[in-house]
Amino acid sequence: MNWREESIFVTGATGFIGGRVCERLVQAGANRVRALVHSIQRAPRIGRLPIQLCRGNLDDADSLAKAMGESHIVIHCALDENYQSVVPHLRRLLRRAESTKVRRFIHLSSTAVYGMRHSPACEEESAPLRRTGNAYSDNKMYAEEVAMRFVRRGLPLVILRPSIVYGPFSLWDIRAVQELREGHLRLIDGGRGICNTTYVDNLIDAIFLSIENDRALGEAFFITDGERVTWGDFIRAHAAMMDPKPNIGDIASQEIEAYWQRQPSFWRKSVQEARGVFLGAELRRLLKRIPVFDSVLSVAWHRMRKMGREDKDRLRNRILGVNGMASVQASRNSIPDLISCQIQTGSGHFRIDKASRILGYQPRISFAHGIALVEQWLHFANYL
Which of 30, 81, 210, 340 is the most core-located residue (most Cβ within 10 A)? Predict the structure, then answer.
């Protein structure tokens, strides 16, 4: 049976990647697409498509079952803002998929399963996963372990590991031009770190190939553009779009690490914990059960997304008090955070040989072409 005629369930459908998955499915002729959405108001991008918008929540098994129905194919694109939810959400979805005997489950993981600073030791999928202490990375790793347990129980599942996914609607591109304009974006160690770009349509090509290819079952694949692109290349490509051209500073990774090491560990931990509580999905889910809070949170989220860097700094300082001062001062000094430092100083170049050999994956969109498409969209969306 042609998979385009089967029922396809997409999680994270209102996000950057999930939204593009829905668009590409429609373009490919799929006519039974079910998109999981928390609320219809958050789905303007996909609301224009001839697909079924299914209200539900990965936190709630009953609403998830109703939204998913008897779908034959699941494409799991949801990005959990609360990293602690990554594993339970996936497990709940896998159990539902197992009970309904789905024909294919595509799990979008990440190269972050190898930590934030990638080394040449993890350039191939055979490299063992290990804890790194980063909450996002470790939970993505645990999620893959859970997924593989379901594979051993017979679930037809494929894991895809993209890296820096960019393209229209990507925050990587939006933030790059915003921070360049504000003078906050600096090259770390000269921008020599490997970026491992993945243009969004290349990733979706890999998703479609994974649905079609039975040899992919039970396997994990790196999905990138296949080019050795540095962070300097990525940042300068965005700077080249802008008029006037911004000045790009440079900072050594040792200076960044030394700066953050000087910040009191007590306050650093307090900021992390406060962020987890106040921005966590669990608290938002509870508050959204109260209509007035649901309305307030929706308006606040919409306004925050439109804020400039300085306004966000002031708000963070008001919320976190003394805890926020170090972050605000770092922003004024253009000191990148430690996670950005780790991401931008990796030396590992993820290979796509396995995806090419088994899936037949060949990136259609080169980095140069992808950046040109991004520039067109940034102009269209009034970011340039």
Answer: 210
